[in-house]
Design brief:
This is Glyoxylate/hydroxypyruvate reductase A. This protein is of the alpha/beta class. The chain contains 10 helices and 12 strands. It is 31% helix and 17% strand. A 7-stranded parallel β-sheet has the order 8-7-6-9-10-11-12. The longest helix has 19 residues. The site of oxalic acid (OXD) has 4 residues, from loops.
């Protein structure tokens, strides 16, 4: 019998549980501190507390309720018998595109400086640029990065995309991980849609910022630990970076009193760039449980060695 353990606390695990229970009332759920947890073969989690997954001896599948699984991988030994899966959803792509588009338009059409000017009653009309004159660089050409890069290219922006391997994407000039210098050079708006891995941790740093166009803007929708916060604060102070739209943070919720809440040029949003619907998440997890029970491999697996 399948036993599901809900490992929390974590973003949305409770709501995914309710949606799964509604779709599959007979499925047995427990918490890590209940005796049935010792038998659990499936774990559902977001940011499992340290050691919590290692204490569950019979797991075959650990399912993230989100698109990223970095917080799970860091908790699991490289036991190849335990599969890790994540959520991949077209609705997620649409949501992310909407968020990124808002950010790109904010900087491209100078709404940042107009909002600033309003505070001082300054009537100043910034020159309008054509979309093709703004170079947008998308880091990560996975499910979400591709959707955002393609969507922006369709709107006429000069779009570049960067990934580990080589990619072909209509309307987008693509670069692989050996070509980061060419990718970054002259970018006006840099968007991070990378997974957090040992290679990408801290990638939004002074060295990266120094390669962008002067006064570039940064949009981070990946993970908080992609960003070296002190480097950003210094770049903003020096005005080499004009602004940052940040959705993700090393500590979430972003603590009260953290400098990023108050820094001019920084927009903070509470990890809302995009979410799949709870019904979609629940159904995808149930489908993967069914595949496992039928002796098939679940889909949307994460490669524990690559880290995404
Ligand atoms: P995918 O796994 O589909 O794509 C990851 C992309 O990153 C791939 O193109 C991959 O390259 C590239 N990549 C990985 N490592 C490197 C590297 N070292 N150098 C260059 N490129 C690299 O992820 P998704 O698109 O589904 O999601 C991306 C991230 O977005 C998630 O991991 C999560 O952190 C974040 N996210 C944030 C949300 C929010 O609301 N803020 C919501 C959902 C996700 P290649 O294709 O060559 O393998
Ligand atoms: C994420 C998500 O991975 O919200 O950030 O799905």
């Amino acid at each position: 019998m399948t036993q599901v353990v809900l490992v929390g606390p974590g973003k949305d695990v409770e709501r995914v549980h309710s949606a799964m229970a509604a779709l599959r009332p007979a499925l047995s759920f427990c918490r890590p501190d209940e005796p049935q947890a010792a038998e659990a073969d499936i774990a559902i989690c977001w940011a499992p507390p340290p050691g919590s997954l290692g204490a569950l001896p019979n797991l075959r599948l650990i399912h993230s309720v989100g698109a990223g699984a970095d917080n799970i991988i860091s908790e699991v030994s490289r036991d190849k018998n335990v599969l890790i899966c994540r959520i991949v959803d077209p609705g997620h792509c649409q949501g992310m595109f909407e968020y990124v588009l808002w950010g790109v338009l904010h900087y491209h059409r100078h709404f940042d400086s107009m909002l600033q000017n309003q505070r001082t009653g300054t009537w100043q009309r910034p020159a309008q640029r054509a979309a093709y004159e703004t170079t947008v660089g998308v880091m990560g050409l996975g499910t979400l990065g591709k959707a955002c890069a393609s969507g922006l290219a369709r709107l006429g922006f000069n779009v570049r995309g960067w990934a580990r391997g080589t990619h072909t994407l209509e309307g987008v000039k693509t670069f692989d991980s050996t070509q980061s210098g060419d990718f970054l050079s002259g970018v006006d708006i840099l968007i991070c849609l990378l997974p957090l891995t040992e290679e990408t941790r801290g990638i939004l740093c002074a060295d990266t910022f120094s390669q962008l166009a002067p006064g570039a803007a940064v949009i981070n929708c990946g993970r908080g630990a992609h960003l070296r916060e002190d480097d950003l604060l210094q770049a903003l102070e020096a005005r080499s970076i004009r602004g940052a739209l940040l959705d993700v943070f090393s500590v979430e919720p972003l603590p009260l009193g953290h400098p990023l809440w108050q820094t001019d040029g920084v927009i903070v949003t509470p990890h809302v760039a995009s979410s799949a619907s709870f019904k979609v998440i629940a159904q995808q997890i149930l489908d993967n449980i069914d595949r496992l029970q039928a002796g098939e491999l679940p889909v949307n697996r994460v490669d524990g060695d690559l880290g995404y």
